[in-house]
Amino acid sequence: MKKTKTDLKNKGIVFILNLKIYPLEAVRNAAYAFADRAFIDLKGNSKKEINVFLKSKNKLTGKQIKDLKGEFLNELLNCSIRKNIFDKKRKILEYVVAGAVTAALEKPKIEPNNKKENKEMLEIEKEIAALQQELEKEADQDYQIDPLEIAKPYGKSSKKRK
Amino acid sequence: MEKAQRKENNNLFLKKIDYTGLGSFQFKKLAGEILLSNDSGSWLWLGKKDFSRFLSGKIKKGEKIYRELAAKGFFRPDKKKLVEMAGQYLKLNYSVWRGPSLFIVVLTQRCNHRCVYCQAVPEHPRRRGFDMSCATAKKTLNLIFKTPSPFVRIEFQGGEPLLNWPILQYIVDYAKFLNRSREKNLQLSLVSNLTLLDEKKLKFLLNEEIDICCSFDGPAKVHNKNRICLNGTNSHGVVVGQIKKIRQAVKDRGRAGSLNALVTVSRLSLPYGREIIDEYIKRGFNNIFLRPLSPLGLSKQTWQTIGYGAQDFIQFYRQALDYILKLNLAGHLLIERGVCHILKKILNQEDPAYMEMRSPCGAGIGQMAFDYNGKIYTCDEGRMAAKMDRDNFKLGDINSSYRQLIDNEVTKTMCLASLLDNQAGCSDCVYKPYCGTCPLINFMEYGTIFPVMPATMRCQINKAVFDYIFLKMRSKKYLDIFKRWIGDNSGLKN
Question: Is the separation of the CB atoms in B378 and B390 below 8 Å?
């Protein structure tokens, strides 16, 4: 990396990246990952270098702008390594994912076909529905109205809880 | 000193490496030696000099170290050796190739506890509309039994699953009915706080051979701080009483029943490692599972109070393991189940089918979570994330076809993002053959399924645990204990 220019007035920083070190695709991915925090402009005609202009969406101090650049470079490193790994291991990854998903897709050959037993299950289902209703009534009686308010979601609790 | 260092670095200078003879492997410098591993799960310690000779192709065929390196596939393998190593790889990752086998069924969202670390965002027991219905349960099972896997494990979860007892009974009946024609290896298990377990329910659970798993955080001063019962009941007292009852009932029947317990380690638990272990022994357990917190559900909201950094947990875990090993050396069998899962991979090169520690993880292709309302998620954590308005991990619902649940973008994305070969920092890690990552936790914690892995809490914890295990295995007395843990499977049942 050669020149770095910080522009506090415009909340931005400009720097040059060497494309022999960072692949263009990784630069684009890192820029995309920063799109929620900053406006990014990538410029350059050369195949060797690219100009990156980062303009923060919030007001930043000089140090914060430099940190923003540092975070961008870390993200760029992450993207470069991930691209490198994916390029090298693409076949293995595709094979494992395809194999695991295909193995999970196979269907069993035997389907159940027992009408008599199905009828039994329907009767059980009716009994279960009745039991469930009974249990709901019981639940009403079992619990008081939460005197300590520990069942209330966090942030909604009253002073009592503290 | 500097000279010696320079000499050592020169020994490993890249230009001296003879790539033509080397196989594919990862390595790490640990405690002054080099640990090597490869994708088929073989591993080996080498001294620095031997490692240097290995890299530069200077180890001679007649040497013992050559034979060991060759047998474990660290030299470039010929066709015969490659086939053998591929077989080992498949064995080590067997569960990846057999389809979904773990099915979490959330019977209700209601719970009578408000545990400080709860990931599930529970509802009050008096609330309506948070239970699984019979129709949903039936469709759930019809989907479950479409898995090609010969193993089906249905795990009842909640809230507190015993609050929807009729549906639990129905699922057991219907699952066994379906299995008459499917002939799967069917296992059922209940994850409960045990407070609502009565004689009748216990009898049913034992008759139907349903494994019972409870949350038990150790002595009362820890358990009751972490796990608070809504109506003010002493949760610890109740759980201890129920554990006794279950053991007695199992003993009276004269056959094996399975009762396991889990410890979720909150910041409140950190100072009490030894007491937690002692409490487990006191209550008759011969295994313990010490799990770190996950930043989901209530625990995300209370993280400032109950959370901790990776180093805090690592210190706790190391001290706990030291104590467990000390007890084992004194003749008391106590197994740490997390370590046991890892040891099965390292020592036996076999797959314990532990969904969190495999590559790719179980999301969709190894497990699914069926919520009470009929929605289906990649895993239990997926439905927990949905409660935090992150519906990203939903596979479909009970009206989806089985094919739609598997053949979709969420399943494939999770599969790709949990493949360690696809993660920077993991693809060349020496522990890759035995490790795993959870894209969902990564997403919830760091906002991306591809985080800077070495900076994540789980990676730091996993590496520390692997370091601990490999270093301990260099001593015969600890290696013997570890072998006993994985050889004696009955140790996992009480």
Answer: no
Residue A114 has a pLDDT of 57
Q: Cβ separation of B421 and A92 shorter than 8 Å?
A: yes
Instruction: Please give the Cα distance from B477 to B279 (Å, whole number).
Output: 25
Nearest CA in chain A to B407: A101
- Reported as type and span, the H/E element at residue A50 is strand A49-56
Of A89, A96, A129, the CB nearest to B427: A89
Confidence of residue A160 (pLDDT cuts 50, 70, 90): very low
Give me the interface pTM, i.e. the ipTM. Answer: 0.88
Q: Which chain A positions have a beta carbon within 8 Å of B301's beta carbon?
A: 154-155
Q: Which residues contact A10 (CB under 8 A, 6 or more apart)?
A: A55
Residue B56 corresponds to which amino acid? Answer: S
What is residue B359's DSSP assignment? S
C-alpha B127/C-alpha B69 separation (Å) is: 63
Q: In the block, which residue shows the tokens 């909340």?
A: A11
Sheet architecture: strand order including B375-377? B290-292, B259-265, B211-215, B185-192, B151-157, B102-106, B367-370, B375-377, B394-397
Is A139 in Cβ contact with B110 (below 8 Å)?
A: yes
Q: Any chain A CB within 8 A of the CB of B174?
A: yes
Check B421 against A101: CB less than 8 A apart.
no
What is d(CA B249, CA B255) in angstroms, rounded to the nearest whole number?
A: 10
Token pair listed for B21: 């003879």
Q: What is the pLDDT of residues B279-299, one digit of tens each?
A: 999 999 999 999 999 888 777
Contact between B225 and B271 under an 8 Å Cβ cutoff? The reply is: no
Q: How many C-beta atoms surround the C-beta of residue A45 within 10 A?
A: 7
Of A106, A110, A132, the CB nearest to B148: A106
The b/e string for B275-299 (b: 16+ C-beta within 10 A; e otherwise) is ebbebbeebebbbbbbebbbbbbbb
CA dihedral A52, A57, A60, A63 (to 10 degrees): -30
